[in-house]
Batch of 2 targets.
Target 1
Amino acid sequence: MDRKSSLLLKEDKWDSAFFNVKIARLHISGKKPDKSLTRRMHDLIELAMRENIAFLVIKLVDPNPAFEEVIRGVNFEECGESVESTLVYPVSSSGDKLGNHKVRFFEAGDMKEVKNIAKDAFRLSYLYKCGFAKRNIIDSYHMQWAENLTKDKNAVVFVVDVCSRVAGFIAMSIDELKRIGVIILVAVKKEYRGLNIGESLVQECIEWGISNAKSIEVKTQKNNKKALSLYEKMGFKVVSTDKVFYKRMI
């Protein structure tokens, strides 16, 4: 296999360890697939089989039918579609504040509630569709992800209290060198949804970012129409889309 092909394949060490199966990922982008793409895809599949990869996951950036035809032609299945949006400072604002809840920084005592909220807040995740593990294991994955972010020195986490209980949280990673914030997780407890808590959390990230970031990015599942509408209303602009495909190898 040539060097160009071999560079595409990368094992996800963290996910592989968590799910106890070998998971490899590759990103594909471009306006038009070259004639060698199908051959290289077959080469990648053969390599994955030799290395006992259980799942191959492709992120197709700015998808188009020509690339999708090649990917589906080697028996990958679609499992998700996302929209990436960016908010660039200075932010033009109408003065409207969509959320009016008191937001504060995460504290160590919030961990249990944050993990419980994360447990069932991300049902639109492609992980549930591609079959890495049973639903309860994927729930645990999201709980661990949330916990890791609260301990990450390059992330900021805010929570909202309702009646002295954590009703929602937001986690944003920070690239201090580039001064870019990336909203990673936003979750609201089921019984408190519809109360503009998510809006309050995003608003807090925007206000925090005024003195700490040049821009804020967020990725949203394309079928999460409410979230996409909220981000648009708050000034985020769509910059790219992607589709995720998977192939179970063993």
Target 2
Amino acid sequence: ITKSGNKFLLTQPGLIRKVLKATDMEDCNSTATPATTLALGLDKDGDPFDENWDYASVVGMLMYLANNSRPDIAFAVHQCARFSHQPKKCHEDAVKRIVRYLKGTHKRD
């Protein structure tokens, strides 16, 4: 927590680094937005989730960030959290996009 005049700034750069490490995306390219303009769907017949990281755990960390210091990712994280029970490749890609966005914006924290 940083106080500047009458303002308080709450940042969580350590948690962002933890998310980047958990997804093995420390060296990823950044993106300008946390989500696409299209809603994330069920994708019953889509390719399965195929990563070494735990989807629900990463989404949980992202939810904590969204609720406490990064409201700019709240909608994108909510879209991903809806599919924690059976994520597919498209949901994996959506989480990765959020992580890329955090990579590009964590310096402002």
